[in-house]
Design a protein that fits this description.
This protein has 458 residues and is an alpha/beta fold. The chain has helices spanning 14-24, 73-85, 96-105, 122-132, 147-156, 167-177, 198-210, 221-230, 247-260, 278-282, 301-310, 316-319, 357-364, 369-394, 398-414, 418-432, 438-456; strands at 28-34, 38-44, 65-69, 89-93, 110-114, 137-142, 159-162, 191-194, 215-218, 235-239, 271-275, 293-296.
Amino acid sequence: DNSTTRKFGGTGLGLSIAHRLVELMGGQIGVNSKLGQGSRFWFEIPTLKSENRVHIDLPDLTGLSVLIIEDHKTSQVELAALMQHMKAEAIIVSDAEEALALAVKRPFDVALADYKLPGMDGLTLLRKLHEIQPFMGMVLHTIQHDYAILQACKFVGARYLEKPASSLAIGDALKSATKRIRPQSSKPQRLLICEDNESVRDILQRQLSKLGVTADFAENGLQGWDILQQNNHTMLITDLHMPQMDGYGLVKTIRTYEEENDITNGDRLPVIAMTADVQLVHQQVYLQHGFDECLLKPVSIGQLKQLLIRWGLIQAADTSAAPTPAEEQPQPAAPPAPEPVAVRHDIVLPDQPVIDKEMAVDQFGAFDDDAIAMIKMFMQITTPQISDMDEAFRNADWLRLRNIAHSVKGAARSACCLQLGDVAENIQIMADGSRVDNIQMQQLHAAFDKAKIEAETL
């Protein structure tokens, strides 16, 4: 056969070209080979260290839910890291069967499928996914440059992405593939949020107000279960750590009830876990407990908006408009001021912003009067909690101290008070081993005082 394809050995020019290129760059090329063990081809070229770093701005995929179907383990790791960097929530599966089962259970914004998959090719899989979720964006990732596949992608409405694709190309493909308008559900939508921290509840309420969404709130899982039994809610967002019944107990109660009453996938209550545990999100542990998705605290308005669009609580077209001003929220009466605490001036605090204004923009879409009111309300609500932490420390009540510190940590980060959040987290960790000392409590007061003073100047 006179073909020069790889099947018949090629032309033999590849190594000659590589050898000439390396020589032109002043380098060397070689090969080490042992019979039965394999060969190692190598080259060396002289280079100069560059003082300039190339920075590529990748697309921001905040809040985007991506279903990735890829059976190659190395590619799975690389894609997971890329999605994390672009702030997307990705679930990665190895075969079509698992992908179809997931698509029946919950919505995704976009699917990225490799063409060569075990049991079913990626194009056939995208067709089946489209039947289940017609408003999900689709991207086919393939090493084959095939005109027939390209045309088939156009017919299905999928983006065609050739391998190897750069990080920028993958991000752009996913972002552009999700520009379809997803309609709002025709049935009445009721959202329930279970969160024991008053400050976090206030922040979520203000964010939802900007998005034009009303919600019911419960302070723990037990209260949330009672509300669910009395009203026809269509989605639940729940914190994981709450008194009386936590988020894990609540979702277990819900799934047990659904199983006993033969409630199938289409009618299951979507339950979204809300947590600051990064590993729980990235390792998708929440799926094993019966949750459908996971929101990472502190929750930005972009994350929340995309979640509500995905589940049909709001329309994509409506949320693209400028946010409507939030209704004026009633301000609680200021609690009595605690007794002054003498704070040392040599206390070292974490190298974090006292109040992160850029983070507040992510939370609310702008650093406006509503964001400022949220921060000031957080300071009012947290003042008695600082006193409660002092009391628990004096009484060596480590469990109580840990629980209050956990609450202050989450609320502080949601209110963009990052320095205070880090100090509270450290006390929470140290309280587990009964190792909190006077210095850490001094740090708490110093961080809180700094945040309070800065909040007053806003």
